[in-house]
Amino acid sequence: MADTIPLLNAVDLHKTYSVSRRDLEVLRGVDFTLAAGEFAALRGASGAGKSTLLHLLGGLDRPLRGTIEFKGRNLASFSANALAEFRGREIGFIFQSYHLLPEFDALENVCLAARIRRRDAVQTKRLATDLLNRVGLSKRLDHMPAELSGGEQQRVAIARALINSPSIILADEPTGNLDSATGDEILDLLCALRDERDMALLIATHSDAVAQRAQRVIHIEDGVLVAN
Question: With bands split at pLDDT 50, 70 and 90, how would you rate the model's confidence at 227?
Fold first, then answer.
């Protein structure tokens, strides 16, 4: 039987940034795969390259060298428009700092990702309302981000990440700004939603609790993946 093509497959990823007139090599030859429906945790010290790897895998940035394939298709072959379409359709991003638009209420923040893809406004509002109900914010739909707690803002961010029914959730320290109890609630929610929707989930984290729940833990150190 032929080998199953992984959902994401990255080979020999390199990424360098220019900082203060010198080159900073962040990734130095990373190989990584993510299967459909898999829950993986990415661990490493601050500056090890976790966020950079997530950005490359999600098409927010391009590697200096190496290849990233989604279902066997090389992202390097995508035009800028095709890459934006890929991100909007297949990837849901969740960030540590939430990145909610302060001038929009919770419902509008969730709707925005679908409206960018020109989905029907009435259907989008209905779906966003359902998602906010699902994450426990049925009474916060018209609240602005400044009126929400950190945990509530992260729940809005999760609903926003789900609005386009992505096949992959990439989460960068999603519990890092939260107290332990709220962080546990967010982790429980992410795990439940992954099970319900059969999404792949990759979380960059320092948290032991996240690592213990993951099916696989990957460690990154000085820009390379290292054995457990």
Answer: low
pLDDT, average across residues 40-59 = 93
Residue type, 79: S
Structure-block tokens of residue 80: 């800028």
Residue 146, in any domain of the structure: yes
Domain that holds residue 179: 38-49+80-226
pTM of the model: 0.92
Residue 131 lies in a domain: yes
In angstroms, the CA 205 to CA 198 distance is: 21
| Interatomic CA distance for residues 17 and 36, integer angstroms | 31
- Write the DSSP assignment of the chain as a string of letters: -PPPPPSEEEEEEEEEEEETTEEEEEEEEEEEEE-TT-EEEEE--TTSSHHHHHHHHTTSS--SEEEEEETTEEGGGS-HHHHHHHHHHHEEEEETT----TTS-HHHHHHHHHHHTT--HHHHHHHHHHHHHHTT-TT-TT--GGGS-HHHHHHHHHHHHHTT--SEEEEESTTTTS-HHHHHHHHHHHHHHHHHHT-EEEEEE--HHHHHHSSEEEEEETTEEE--
> Whose structure tokens read 């093509």?
5
Number of domains into which the chain is organized: 1
User: In whole angstroms, what is the distance from residue 221 CA to residue 200 CA?
Assistant: 23
User: Per-residue pLDDT averaged across 129-157, rounded?
Assistant: 95
